[in-house]
Amino acid sequence: MFRPYLLTFILTFILSFACSTGRAQDFFERVSVPPGGRIDAIGVTAAQTPLAMSTSNIWRYDRASGSWMLVQRFTSMSVNTKRIVTGPGGEVYAVTMGQGLWRSTDDGRTWEQLVTADPYTTDVLPLASGELYATTHGRGVLFSTDNGTSWEQRNEGLTDKFLRAIVRDASGNLYGGHNSLAISKSTDDGMTWNELAGSPTRIEDLLSSSDGSLYSAGQGAVYRSTDNGVNWQETSGGPGGTIARLVETADGGVFAMRYSGGNGIYRYDTGTDTWAELPDAADAGYGRGLAIADDGTLYSATVKGVWYTGDLGQSWTEMNSGIYAMGVMGMVEAADGTYLIATNYQGLLRSTDKGATWNSSSTGLTTIEFYSITADPAGDVYAGGRYGEVFRSTDSGLSWTRQNEGHNVLSLRALTYASTGTLFAAGRDGVLSSTDKGVSWSVLDNGIAEVQANIVRESPAGIVYAGMEGSGAYLSTDDGASWQALHQDLATARVKDVAVHGNKLYLAASGEAVFGSHDNGATWQSYSRGGVSSWVDILEFTEDGALFAGHAYAVSLLNPMSEEWIALAPGFHYVKTLTVLDDGHLYVGSLADGLYRTTEMLSTQLPAAPILISPVNNAENTGTEPTFTWTEQSDAIYYHIQISRDAMHQDVVWEVSFPAAASITIDPNQLETNAEYHWRLAAGNGAGHGPWSETWSFQTGMSTGVNSSSSPDENTFTLTSSPNPFTSSTQLLATLPQRGHVRLHIIDMLGRTVAQLTDGTLESGAHQFTFSAVSLPAGYYTAVLESGGRITAHRMLLVR
Question: Are 716 and 766 in contact (CB under 8 A)?
Fold first, then answer.
C-alpha cells in the first residue's frame, strides 16, 4: 500500500500532468447511464467487505461512501466462469477464465496475479496449511505448496481435464466437477483420481455442506449425496436450466442460483427434500454468483449488478452505485432527437436531453438482452434481441411492439433500415430482409453465402454492404436482390464491420487487420500499423472523413498522412458501438465498460500548424536522443512528427503519430552523432491532418544525450525515460545525489503498482533500468522514484 504522503503526491502529479499535457487521456468522458451491468462473481472477505467481479474488473465495496470502488482492471476480458474465494488465512482469490488466478492479502484493496500453468482457471481451494488446489479448463487439477508461487499438475486417473469446481469434505477427500463427464474423487490429496460411477455430469458447482452432504449443480438439476459420493439423488422441485452457484448459510440452509432457463434463487429444505423459490428475486436471481456474510446477508451477482438480502431472500435491495459494467451493443438517434441505446443485459435505455439523463425503455419488451438498434427517418425505431426478437417503437422508445412472432432472426447481430424502406438483418442464416416493418423475413441468397452475417450497412449512395463470419464481405446495388463479393483475398475472413465515405471503403477483418480501398474496392491495402489491435469490431466515419476504429482495448483514429492508427483511449474492453450524433460528439459503447463520449464536440476545422519550441532552430550539441517540444493546439487529437536528413523531408529517418501531448523523446539509435537533422510537426483531429509547422534544424554533436556522470552534485535527483512514447519497453535513467535506499516502481492511472524496478541500496550517480510492458495495455504509466525522503515522478506513454 502507498503511504499517505506518497499517494497524495502521485495523485497531484497525475492531475497536474493531465491538465498540462494535452487531451489524449481525457479525450472521453463517462456518460451517466444507470450503474450496474453484468457481474459474474461475488465474495465477502474475512473483514466482511463485499467484492464483485465483472468480465473485466474487480470492485470493492466502500461502506463509508456506500459505493463500489474499482480496484483491479484486467488487461483483457475474462469469460464466464469466475469466482471470488476467501481462504482460511484471510487471503482472497479471484478466479478467472482467461486471466488466471489472482490474490489479495489486504482485504481486496490490491491484487497480484499468481503464476499458474494455465490462464483458464475455474475454481480454487485454499487450505489452512497454505496449500492450494486449482481447477482449469484443459489442464486438469493444479497443486501448490507455496501459496501459489509454483504449481504442479495432479491428474493421474483423470480422463477429462476440463473441470469446473473442486471441494474437500470433512474427511479430506477431494471432489472435482467436470465440464462434461462425471465427478472425480481423490482420497490421497489429489495424487490419484477415480471417476464416481453414476454421479452427475456437466457440473457448474460443488458444495460440501456442514452436515456431510455433497451437492452438485449444473445443467438441469441439483443432486445430493449423503455417502461421500457413492450414490446421488436428484433433489425434488429444484431449479431447472443452468444452476451456476451453490452456497450454505450458517444455519445449514443451501441456496442455489440459476443462470439460464429463467430467473430465480432457491432455498433447499433437507427435511422435506424440496426447494422453495425466494420471492422478489427476479432481478436478483439471474446470474452466476452467491456469497454469504457472517451476519447472514446474502449477496447475488447478476446480469443487472449486485443485490443483497438481509432476511434470507424475502426481500432484495440493489447495490450498484459505482459499478459501471454495462455492455452497450448499439446506439441510435430517433427522428425527434431522442437517444436510445441497446444493452446486452439491461434492456433498452432512452434519453431526451442529449444523454444527460437516462430512463428504462421497457414497455412491451419481453427480453433484456439486445444486440442492435436502428431508426428510420419517419420516426420508427427497431431493436433486435439476442434470440432474434424484433421490436418496433413508433414513439421514440416509449413503448414497443414485438413484430416477428414466430419468425425469429436466429443469432441476430445487426439491424439496418435502408433508404428504400427495407429492413435488413444479419443473423445465423446470413442476410435477411423485411419489407413489412420486421413482421416477416426472407433469407437473401442470390450470390451471398448463407452463413452467419455479422453486419449490414447502407452507404450514403444506397449501396448495401454485408460482413460475414468466415466468408468475407459483399455488396448489393439492388436492395439486396443480388450480391457480389468484395476483396477476393478476404473470401474467408470474419468481417465485423464495413465503413464507407465517398470512394473510400474499409473492412474490419477480425483477427487480421483493417483493410481499405480508396477506389471503390478496385484495389486494397492493409491498415494495421500503430495503436490498433487485430480485433476491430466497429468502424465509424465522421462527415469530414475521419475514420475511427473500436477494438479489443481502445478507440483509435487513422492518421491519413502516415496511414497509422493512434490509440486515443486505451483501457476500453471490446468496443461495440461507435457513432457520431447530432450533438457533435463521438459516442463509444463497450462490452463491459458502459457508455462514453468525447469530452468536446469533434472539430470540423483542421488544427493550425504547431509552433515549435525546442530544440531551437539551428541548435547544436543536442545529443542523439533529444526531446522535442511545441505549443499545443487546443483542437488537436494527435500529432505527427518527422525528422529528416534534408530540409525538404525526402530522407525521413524517424516519424511517428501519437496522442496529443506537449513533447516527445526520440527513440534511441535513430540519430547519428555529429550530424545535422531537420524536424517538423503537424496536428490532426476529426477533420483531418492539419498543415505542417516550420522546419527547424539541429546538430547532434558528439554527445549521446545521456548524462553518465558518476558524481552528481547534492541537488541532482532526476528520472527520465527513452523512448517516450514507447511500444514495448523503455529505459529509465535515475540520477541519485548520494548513496541510500532507493525504490523505483511503475503505477498505472488507477495508482496500482504494475512493476517494481528496484527496492534496495544504490550508490550515487546514474542508474539505468528497463521497464518492460509487453503484457500491459496501452496507456499512461508513471514511474515513481523515492530516496532519502525525496520523491520524483516521470510520466510515460505506452502505445501499440
Answer: no
User: Is residue 343 within 8 Å of residue 329, measured between CB atoms?
Assistant: yes
Edge-to-edge strand list for the sheet holding 401-402: 370-375, 381-385, 390-393, 401-402
- Per-residue pLDDT averaged across 657-679, rounded? 87
What contacts 327, CB < 8 A, 6 or more positions away?
37, 38, 343, 344, 345, 576, 589, 590, 591, 592
Residue of 374, 398, 392, 387 whose CA lies nearest to 577: 374
pLDDT at res. 292: 95
Residue-wise burial string across 64-89, b where 16 or more C-beta atoms lie within 10 A, e elsewhere:
eeeebebbbbbebbbebbbbbbbbee
Q: How many CB atoms lie within 10 A of CB 113?
A: 18
* Cβ-based neighbours of 448, under 8 Å, separated by 6 or more: 430, 431, 466, 468, 474, 476, 483
Strands 348-351 and 442-444: unpaired
Percent of the chain beyond pLDDT 90?
A: 59
Residue type present at position 709: S
Element (H, E) at 12: helix 4-20
Q: Residues 742, 784: contact at Cβ < 8 Å?
A: no
For the stretch 469-501, pLDDT in tens is: 999 999 999 999 999 999 888 889 999 999 999
State yes or no: cis peptide before 725, omega within 30 of 0. Answer: yes
Select from 147, 208, 136 the least CA-distant residue to 173.
208
| Helix, strand or coil, per DSSP, at residue 789 | coil
The cell numbers describing 57, all together, are 474488473
Grid coordinates of 374: 436502428
For residue 429, the cross-strand partners are none
Q: What is the CA radius of gyration of the chain?
A: 29
Residue 436: its pLDDT value, please? Answer: 96
Looking up cell 429463467, which residue turns up?
262
Residue with cell 502529479: 13
Q: Which domains does the chain have, with CATH numbers?
A: 1-27+708-800 (2.60.40.1930), 35-324 (2.130.10.10), 325-598 (2.130.10.10), 611-699 (2.60.40.10)
Question: How far apart, in whole angstroms, are the C-alpha atoms of residue 229 and residue 24?
Answer: 58
Spatial contact of 687 and 714, defined as CB atoms under 8 Å apart: no
Give Cα 248 to chain centroid, integer Å: 33
pLDDT above 70 coverage of the chain, percent: 92
Predicted structure pTM score = 0.82
Q: Which three cell numbers stand for residue 370?
A: 439486445
SS3 321: coil
CA angle (691 as vertex; 690, 695 as ends), nearest 5: 135
CA dist., res. 592 & res. 122, Å (int): 20
Do residues 569 and 509 touch, judged by C-beta distance below 8 A?
no
Q: Which residues pair with 317 in a beta bridge?
A: 308
Q: Which three cell numbers stand for residue 480?
A: 439486396
Phi (first) and psi of residue 12, to 5 degrees? -60, -40
Pairing label, strands 36-37, 324-325: parallel
Q: Which three cell numbers stand for residue 384?
A: 433486435
Residue 763, CA distances (Å) to 85, 323, 738, 739, 742 in order? 44, 46, 7, 4, 9
Give the Cα separation of 112 and 106 in Å (integer): 11
CA distance 540 to 457: 11
Question: Where does residue 760 rank: exposed (0-12), middle (13-18), buried (19+ CB within 10 A)?
Answer: exposed
The three cell numbers locating residue 504: 473510400
pLDDT of 715? 57
